[in-house]
Specification:
This protein is an alpha+beta fold. Helix content is 39%, strand content 16%.
């Protein structure tokens, strides 16, 4: 029985070794034909002209199941609609952005015209005297600064 197990083990090692050497040369999963660059992925112009505001929905969930990110998102949407900037900017809820602040909500402003890194802001609606109103206004003015 030990000899049989030993033989099987050796056979498996040879198979794996053989597979490893051939998979480095050509993989059966990858097509060996050259990439046809005349084929392109369809694209459409975005509906927002000036930028996109990403509001992390996970930040508030981590903080005792609060709806702070949803409240912030809805406030920004309504504010943009009131001032007629809704078509220029979009506010989108997103999953984790990887910043994970102890207190606050991560907001990223992606500007269409900027080649720079997008600013990543931490907004803590509970830190202000007026339940986040001044912080929201500051965030809103920052968004408007990124207008084309």
């Amino acid at each position: 029985m030990k000899k049989l197990i030993y033989r099987i083990k050796k056979l498996l090692q040879r198979i794996f070794k053989s597979f490893a050497s051939t998979s480095q040369q050509t993989s059966p999963l990858i097509n060996s034909r050259p990439l046809d660059t005349s084929i392109s992925i369809p694209s459409v112009p975005p509906r927002w002209e000036s930028g996109l505001v990403l509001v992390c929905s996970q930040c508030a969930n981590e903080q005792s199941g609060s709806t702070a990110s949803e409240d912030l998102e809805n406030w920004l949407k309504s504010r943009l609609k009131i001032e007629g900037l809704w078509g220029e900017f979009r506010v989108v809820s997103t999953s984790c952005l990887g910043v994970c602040p102890k207190a606050g909500i991560t907001v990223v402003i992606v500007s269409n015209g900027s080649g720079d890194n997008s600013p990543c802001l931490i907004v803590n609606p509970r830190s202000d005297v007026y339940d986040g109103l001044r912080l929201r206004e500051l965030l809103y003015s920052y968004i408007k600064q990124n207008k084309k």
